[in-house]
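Morning run. Coffee first, then this:
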Amino acid sequence: MTTNLKRKRVEGAGSRKNPKLADRHEEPDWDARSSKDGGNSSAGESDGEDEEEWRGIGEPASTSAEVHDRQHSGTKPKKPPTGEELRVIKDAAELFRSSSFKLQIDALLPNVRPKTSRIPPLDRFLLALHATIMGILPVPPQHPLEAARKLLKKSVSVPYVLPLPLEETNWKVAFEKPAEIVLVGSWANKVSVKGKDGTKFGVDLAVEMPNSLFQEKDYLNARFFQKRAFYLATIASAIKSSKNGLDAQVSYQSLSNDTRLTKLVVTHKTDNSSNDFTKLHAEVCIIPILSTQSPISLHRLSPTHSNLRVSSNSEDESKSAPTPTPLYNHAFLTAMTPRIHLLATHTLKNEAPAFSDALALIRVWANQRGYSGGSRMCVRGFEAMGPWWSALLAFLVLGEEPRVAGNKASRRKALGRGLSSYQLFRAALDFLSKHDFEETPIFVKSGSGHQFPPDEYDQKNGPIFVDSSSTVNLLAGVPHGSLDLLRYDALKTLEALDHPPAGSDAFTDVFLKDHRDLSTRFDIVIRVDLSNANPRNTSVHAALDAGSPSNALISSIGSLTRQALGNRCKAVATLQPPSETRELSQAHPSSPEVIFIGLIHHPEHAFRLVDHGPAADETDPTIRQRFTELWGDKAELRRFKDGRIVESVVWDVKTIDERAHVPGMIARHILNHHFGISDASIQTWQTSFDSVLRLPESISKLYSTSGVAAGFKAAISAFDTVVKSIKSLDEELPLALLSVSPASEMLRYTSVLSPTPLPASLAPLMPANARYMSPIEIILEFEKSSKWPDDLRAIQKIKLAFFERIATALMAAIGGLSARVVTGDGVSTSEVLDKSYLEIVTPEGWAFNARIWHDREATLLDRIIDNTAGVLPHVTKPREQKKGRDFYDAVEARMAYTRRFIHGPRHHRAIAALCHHYSAFSGTVRLVKRWLASHWLLQGHISEDLIEIICASLFIGDGKVISAGDDAPEDKRANVPGSKERGFALVVEFLKEWKWEETLFVPLYGGEEAAPVSKIPPTSTAGSNVGVWKVATELDGTGRFWTSHGPDFVVAQRVKALAHATWECLQSMAQGQLDVRAIFTHPTDDYDFVIRLDSKILPRYSQNVVLDTTLLSNHGKYANLPEATDNSAVRPGLDPAGQLFNDLQRIYLDTFKIFYDPFGGDCFGGVWDPSLNKPRPFRVLGKFNSIPCKKENDKAKETGQVALNKGAILSEIERLGVGLIKALVIHESG
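And here it is:
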């Protein structure tokens, strides 16, 4: 291709000049030219022959005159891109997702690898360490306990493993000079990657123990591991000695808390010597290994062999066949494979050029998700899995070894060696997201065939992934739950690459973001304290095979919990603290006292209430026995409506909120029944989050005892009843009713508190501060008619007539129903604004506000706004005139019309569809609303509709995978949270990181046809109430419709600070110290003044998240009689505190900002406008209460300066709130 792009210049053309200034406009330096490719350049290029400037594909060649003119016109010709540069540009787009993505990868890789300039001190230290180890004096054979006592005098304990040696032991331990010392692992192959949380680079130093130290039967009862432990302790003692001059610190570390995998960790003291490699941030790990030529036969270490001889008290167990020890054998084999893995990785690195970079990418990805060590909880089984990531890429490149010789059908095809690093990385994720390790074992392609027959690997013992040497199963000991989580994370990553999350970059989300946070990763987080665990069934053999009783216990917990939950969860993962280094005087690692179990829901199955087991006529008794052993006393024989009689487990729940607890209830039962872990040692946070969305217990008890139906379903049922009642009045109305549209959060499952009615019979029993009745907004649409007037004021009068006719007919038809016509809002005096509605209170105590939608209003309002009202079509439009009150009234009415009748119902339908489609969406929205309201930001500064849209963005993403109205399965997207707690944490994380200048686009309406928005007038952006957030939908491309009136810069900054503080609070979940109430408790110290209201007379006080329950008493003089009051009348929507807040916010808009919790808040917080603190010249209509500045002295002249009169303003507020305001607290600034 490049030859077609190059044209030779004509003879005599001037030579090309390359001024420095031209470098600024050259193509980016891709740093991709290699000496190998450079040898393919044409001879003309090497001889300095000039070429014509490349003008692009399809451009004609220039003539010599044109070339001459360009060379002498002052424009310097550009050098055409070389073939290599063109190939790199093309590859960047095709092989690396995009050219920018490739550049990001190129920038990332050097930052996760060790700096070569800091390696020489390490090399010198390794030479000194090699000399020290080779110079250790031999230790003659001796009894293991005697040898341990001698080393203990030097403060070095020997990390003997279970079963520990006894005095009767007849074998001995010794030390001889190592047969060889060699660097192994990722450091030797130069594929090391920086770990998380400051984890140091690991420099693995394999010390091969001489074969003369071992006997043929050392594979039995951990004799090899005992000799290995003494060998390691002897090396530790020599390095610790100050005589060798190493100036090193040495400690033990047991990977996965398995004493059989103990290694020495050597670091250098910071002394700035020539051997000081502390700046490299690395540590040397000394690992004793065994030669493959040792006396121990390899076939004794197959997965089916039993190498632990444990005496049993049970006659049945003693007579049964020996139980295999796959984990014990795997630990043994790891002592033979470091050199094998070193050579295999080196070969693959040379054969596949992109292998090193792909390995770095997959390990960075894994580190960000807890599949490695660090200071935080790591996924069980993945702490020391470095060789597995390399083997995973080897499997993709080389293919699979057929399980049956000559059977190519069972072999997975290789991808080849020519893929780019990104392609290999993505192929690995694709494999992990699709492969089921529980069903299909993996055998990496091996040049020598199978070392052990594939049939010897039993799927019941765990997942199978055999390396390329066909020696070791790299996934031995890794729980299936951890691999389920790995599959889920891989699927999430692929989704993020194809459909980046809202407000996030794909590269950042995949490689740079830390995904180990518990609250955003799992739907349910269970913290388990193991200190008092008492397992029902204990097995000495299982403990020895796992390496310790602690490892056996944790493995059993994860396995049984996953078995009990079944298909309720996509992943049941166990997280535990990573292994830590310990002093040489401590032989064994400390057992973890706390673990976490993370559940990721499968929404279709997670919340079912019945688990079915075997039928009553099951012929195999072992099946019923296993079921009853798993569930204990919860299992019972039940007969169902279809006639079946089966063993079953039923989970009793009382509310919808409790149904979301079923997976957690199952985990609790398993932990209690099988492991004796009490409820006090099991910690979850679901109940705490539920409590902030409920009314106080005393109020809820009144509803339950009175038999009043409450909740979302009851509200929807009441709405359906009202609709039927109104539609039955068609004969009494002049126009037929077409539809009744809901437009209330209480009818779409997103109100903070569950809807509750207030019937007349219950109102007297309620305390005065718990008698709030929240009205439900509905919209009536009548059939079109030409009889509607063309005057906006007349239209409003006609609506009043309709309301009066409907109210009269309803009260006549339904006994106990009351209906009133409300004619204004008490604020606006506009005659064209739709401010009247019909207030309906049903006999059951539900309140509805009905408004009439007449589409002709929009046309008439647009004419006023466009200044064409009363102008005939053929008449020239009058010139621009000064905008009067009619114009501004029309703008206000048009905005109210659009929000109330266009966007409102459409928004309601979209949100209601999401609530039905995603089980966690409703709870997420309610928690976020409660959180913002409890911190005095909701409604007054941030609209509830806006919060619903922001929460929707986390569920529907970019809308390309699934739409709000789609009937596809709920779990099609992996990034969708399955619980309200996780959804809440994700929203907090988003608000913490959201960059306001970037518009958040939410495809909320799915496939619904978007209406044109050109007629919607722009909102006013004057003053300080300008919204800084941009949240766009299909109907609002500007992103300003829902944010035009807030949040402004001050409020948005508060939200970000609040999100940061809440995020820090959520992090305490890892320590078990999360206080949910603290998240919803608002501090008031940063306000300039706080207005305290009288809680006893606030109808909504019972909704307060931090209320004082003693104020909810309804007792009068006598304890058995309610307080006699005249305020028991039902008043829908009466909220004195909210009305006072709205008045203060409107009156003092330019003086201070005021904040308030609309759900039962009993305080206002005010912050003075800082721009008013300095004196300024007096002017008429200054928009704030001012007072003349005092003169410095009597002789000083009048300056005419005025200052904010704070005292007078506060006095005005007290007068406005007489009867509501109890106290006004002023906080001194500074």
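The two ends are 72 Å apart (CA to CA). Good start to the day.
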